[in-house]
């Protein structure tokens, strides 16, 4: 008996997915049926199901989820970096080392109040736990919309679905009208976005210096022009050994700032080991994306990461991305010329953000880096 047969036999007949996701249907029909509910993974949980549908099940070789503990994620203290030259220099040194070795670090004393961080998590959770009729008006796969709620952005292209639902919005340079954001999290996300923009400016300045460039170099390149957020909701999973909360991937931006609750589940790939990134109260997880690896000519590394599924939940996180805008720019990005030399020739060809993103999406998060196809030896 397949997972779907168990699901259909055990489900409440009033739940529309019981009639839509029949075991004899092909995968595309099952995906369409799931999408048509506009209720996401939480809708499955609310229906009281006790199995993981086949469209979420992953091959066993992609599900080894035990995290290693012999490594420790770098923690960088940002207190005083704007006023104390010694602390500033140390932050630059540590940040450069973290981005070269890990592509990840956890930031503490970053200036965003702990109370606001808690409110952001609470507000995000409120949205996902609202009545289905309230949420579904935001449900869409049309990225021209200001605010998009759905389950799995790559629903029809991913080899297996992630056990999570998300809400996404571009916030700069063309923010939505406040009333376009869900009331459950509107005010707190607007306030948080202002704080993240200030923190992003600080981190980009430190990263510029870590590359040996003037403090405003990455800003002048437009790395902060595009800013968006994505709130994720990972419901409790009845069989976490069969699926993932988020498949392994690198981010396709310049920089990501992640706020996670205390549930845990985030892992980063380091020296061929999956390493747990445990929650640290008041901290933000910072990682670079593919585009910063590209323009730094591999000086900084964009590390693969994922989220494991868990029997307990929900897990809530909020990721803020710097790099993309709703209206694509034609600006070309390639290795920064000031970093190049005879001993350090360019590794990548130039690309626009739009072209890179299109290729990244085409790769379908298949576990291989989209950057490989932009290497000069691949382009020739």
Automatic annotation (TrEMBL):
The keyword Magnesium does not apply. InterPro entries: DIOX_N, IPNS-like_FE2OG_OXY, IPNS-like_sf, Oxoglu/Fe-dep_dioxygenase_dom. The keyword Oxidoreductase applies. One of its GO terms (molecular function) is metal ion binding. PROSITE patterns: FE2OG_OXY. Gene3D superfamilies: B-lactam Antibiotic, Isopenicillin N Synthase, Chain. SUPFAM superfamilies: Clavaminate synthase-like (SSF51197). It holds the Pfam family DIOX_N. Its cofactor is Fe cation. Residues 225-325 form the Fe2OG dioxygenase domain. Keywords: Iron, Metal-binding, Oxidoreductase. Coiled coil: none annotated. Belongs to the iron/ascorbate-dependent oxidoreductase family. This is 1-aminocyclopropane-1-carboxylate oxidase homolog 1-like.
């Amino acid at each position: 008996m397949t997972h779907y047969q168990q699901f259909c036999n055990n489900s409440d007949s009033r739940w529309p997915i019981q009639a839509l996701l029949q075991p004899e249907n092909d995968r595309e029909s099952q995906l369409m049926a799931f999408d048509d509910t506009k209720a996401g993974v939480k809708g499955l949980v609310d229906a009281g199901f006790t199995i993981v549908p086949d469209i979420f099940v992953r091959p066993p070789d992609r599900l080894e989820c035990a995290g290693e503990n012999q490594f420790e994620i770098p923690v960088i203290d940002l207190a005083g970096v704007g006023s104390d030259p010694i602390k500033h220099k140390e932050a630059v040194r540590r940040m450069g080392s973290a981005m070269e070795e890990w592509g990840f670090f956890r930031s503490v004393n970053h200036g965003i109040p702990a109370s606001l961080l808690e409110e952001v998590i609470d507000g995000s959770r409120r949205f996902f736990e609202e009545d289905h009729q309230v949420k579904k008006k935001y449900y869409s796969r049309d990225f021209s919309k200001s605010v998009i709620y759905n389950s799995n952005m790559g629903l029809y292209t991913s080899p297996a679905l992630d056990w999570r639902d998300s809400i996404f919005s571009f916030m700069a340079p063309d923010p939505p009208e406040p009333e376009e954001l869900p009331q459950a999290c509107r005010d707190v996300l607007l306030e948080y976005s202002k704080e993240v923009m200030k923190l992003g400016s600080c981190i980009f300045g430190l990263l510029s210096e870590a590359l040996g460039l003037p403090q405003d170099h990455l800003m002048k390149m437009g790395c902060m022009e595009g800013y968006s957020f994505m709130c994720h909701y990972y419901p409790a999973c009845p069989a976490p050994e069969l699926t993932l909360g988020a498949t392994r991937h690198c981010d396709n931006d310049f920089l990501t700032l992640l706020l996670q609750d205390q549930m845990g589940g985030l892992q980063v790939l380091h020296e061929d080991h999956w390493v747990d990134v445990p929650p640290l109260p008041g901290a933000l997880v910072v990682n670079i994306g593919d585009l910063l690896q590209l323009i730094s000519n591999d000086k900084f590394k964009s590390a693969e990461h994922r989220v494991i599924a868990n029997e307990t939940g929900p897990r809530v996180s909020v990721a803020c991305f710097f790099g993309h805008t709703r209206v694509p720019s034609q600006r070309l990005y390639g290795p920064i010329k000031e970093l190049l030399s005879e001993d350090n020739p360019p590794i990548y060809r130039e690309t626009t953000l739009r072209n890179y993103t299109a290729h990244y999406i085409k790769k379908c998060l298949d576990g291989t880096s989209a950057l490989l196809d932009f290497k000069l030896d691949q382009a020739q």
